[in-house]
Design brief:
With 259 residues, the protein is an alpha+beta fold. It is built from two helices and 21 strands.
Length: 259
Amino acid sequence: MLESMSIAATGMHAQQLTIDVVANNLANANTMGFKKSRIDFEDLVYRAAHPNKNGLVNPDIMQPFGTGTALLSVGKVFDSGELKKTERSLDIALQGEGFLEVIMPDGSYGYTRAGSLKVDKDGMLTNMDGHALSSLIQMPEDTQNIIIDKDGKVFIEIVSEDDPLNVGQIELSKFVNPMELTPMGSNLYKPSDASGDALYGTAGNNGFASIEQGYLEASNVSLVEELTNLMMAQRAYELNSKVIQASDEILGIVNGLRR
């Protein structure tokens, strides 16, 4: 019976982790560019048992039985979210596969789907946390309007010029296995060995997303799906706790046999 207690304990721990992941998804349901997490489990090492017949153990036959469950991975699901119109010229949404690449303070690169941009004091195009896009696009001081087309070309309108000026192009990145990117917070990710290195391309070409100016990509969290997962995890937690209670009752019966 002690084995059943430890098995059920792993089940309770697994469901608690599931609830934690669901809670984070729900907390970010209105976070622009947020991608929901998915948790996966695996069964633990199997133990071999020898069957009994007429009170005798048969050493030539082994029957495995499981010893519980454990966390396998927590990965991001990069399904596209709904596009929300903002009319802000520095808001862009990626419609399809790809990431914006930004330069982190330590010189490494981070990747994001959150397309709310701004111009810093030096005129550099950055994300809302102030990390410059790796394309290093700089705006003159007399910029009056910014136009970003679907393939990422950035044009500006200034008083001294009749036609818009091209000041650069936003390059996109993508990964062979984006689910294995490591989240850093603030809707930023960094590559891992499992995700592979970044592949670069132009928006709207070779499978890369197109860019929609004046829009933001909403979270891809489905409230109905998350609430369903929450209820299933809660019920599974309760059932595992009942296994522990039943094991405890059986042990109590065994302990009382000598009375």
